[in-house]
From TrEMBL:
Residues 109-206 form the LUD domain. InterPro entries: FTHF_cligase-like_sf, LUD_dom, NagB/RpiA_transferase-like. This is Lactate utilization protein C. The lineage of its organism: Bacteria, Bacillati, Actinomycetota, Actinomycetes, Pseudonocardiales. PANTHER family: LACTATE UTILIZATION PROTEIN C. It comes from the Bacteria. It comes from Saccharopolyspora griseoalba.
């Protein structure tokens, strides 16, 4: 043990022998700030699915019908669409659903089956959706209390990795990072979904505008 310790300390001494005492050496660190991927949208969809979320690519024209189908498939009847969401979404839901106002209080939110939002950014390498709770995204409570979250992500919003996502976000705004349905395995390693947020996440990816 002593020989090994002396060997390590000897290497440290030799490495420091050329250093100027009292003035730290300048160390160059050239970090990569991005990790480009060949097909960020395809990778994003793959990683979102890995988190046990439902992900679907659809056309802009087919989006309203896809939203209605996602809500219907989740068994949702009471829906919330935040202020700033396209009006065509609400129109497409028709009489099959009961729409709840975006200003619903906590008690009313507890009765909402699904929330339908836009997003701020999608991160390809992690399959993460980021909400900054701007127009169409609603306040944080509205996206955490309902059991189902249907989120619309435009292809232009998908970036390669976390640094690229942060460069698009305003640090002064509230942000929610979503990687799949809310889940925990804290108790006896048994996965339980819907603990801290929606139990079901349905992501609809639409092409460039």
């Amino acid at each position: 043990m002593t020989d090994a310790r002396e060997a390590v300390l000897g290497r440290v001494r030799r490495a420091l022998s050329g250093a100027h005492r009292g003035s730290p050496q300048e160390v160059r660190r050239d970090y990569r700030t991005t990790r480009p991927v060949e097909d960020p949208v395809g990778l994003f969809c793959e990683r979102v699915a890995d988190y046990r979320a439902t992900v679907e690519r659809t056309s802009g024209e087919g989006l309203p019908a896809a939203i209605a189908a996602a809500a219907r498939g989740a068994g949702a009847t009471r829906l919330l669409t935040p202020d700033g969401a396209p009006q065509v979404w609400s129109s497409a839901l028709g009489d099959d659903f009961q729409l709840v106002g975006a200003d619903a209080d906590t008690a009313a939110l507890d009765q909402v089956d699904a929330v339908i939002t836009t997003a701020a950014v999608g991160i390809a390498t992690t399959g993460t959706i980021v909400l900054d709770h701007g127009p169409g995204q609603g306040r944080r409570a509205a996206t955490l209390v309902p059991d189902v979250h249907v989120c619309v992500v435009a292809e232009r919003q998908v970036v390669d990795d976390v640094p690229a996502a942060l460069s698009r976000l305003d640090p002064a705004r509230p942000m929610t990072f979503i990687s799949g349905p809310s889940a925990t395995s804290d108790i006896e390693l048994n996965r339980v979904e819907g603990v801290h947020g929606p139990r079901k996440l349905h992501v609809l990816v639409v092409p460039e505008d």
